């Protein structure tokens, strides 16, 4: 059985703040309501959400602007990682997300380690592009140079 709820936070693959969505009763009762991510849809709640929508949109625009600045900084950044490699340019091991995260932090760029997506493991020397999801709507590409140590 589905019920209508109003989202109080952005939830990936479900909706954004203020959206009215239908979800399973158990999902709402066991996940959304205890975490204060949603409330039952009613006329009173919908009026309150409409009143807050402008403020939420303003805050969201500010978050996106900050994320775009950080993405631009990441796009301009490249990091170099010295690794041990054999004669055929294959690494003894692979470059990890933690290494990339630590080098970004040394450059003064703070991102959540879980938002760095290497894709296929980096196991060769050369230039590799790594995706960094800065915000739900903003992502950046980081150049990682893997050189022989």
Automatic annotation (TrEMBL):
It comes from Lentisphaera araneosa HTCC2155. Coiled coil: none annotated. This is Large ribosomal subunit protein bL9. PANTHER family: 50S RIBOSOMAL PROTEIN L9 (PTHR21368). The gene is rplI. Binds to the 23S rRNA. Keywords: Ribonucleoprotein, Ribosomal protein, RNA-binding, rRNA-binding. Belongs to the bacterial ribosomal protein bL9 family. GO terms for cellular component: ribonucleoprotein complex; ribosome. Residues 15-42 form the Ribosomal protein L9 domain.
């Amino acid at each position: 059985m589905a019920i209508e709820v109003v989202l109080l936070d952005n939830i990936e693959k479900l909706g954004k703040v203020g959206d009215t969505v239908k979800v399973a009763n158990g999902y709402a009762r066991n996940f959304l309501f205890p975490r204060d991510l949603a409330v039952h849809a009613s006329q009173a709640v919908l009026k309150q959400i409409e009143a807050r929508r402008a403020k939420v949109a303003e805050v969201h625009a500010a978050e996106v602007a900050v994320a775009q600045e950080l993405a631009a900084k990441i796009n301009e950044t490249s990091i170099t990682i010295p690794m041990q490699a054999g004669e055929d340019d294959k690494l003894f091991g692979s470059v990890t997300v933690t290494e990339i995260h630590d080098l970004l932090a040394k450059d003064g760029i703070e991102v959540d380690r879980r938002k760095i997506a290497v894709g296929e493991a980096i196991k060769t020397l050369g230039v590799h592009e790594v995706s960094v999801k800065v915000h739900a709507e903003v992502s950046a590409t980081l150049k990682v140079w893997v050189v022989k140590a």
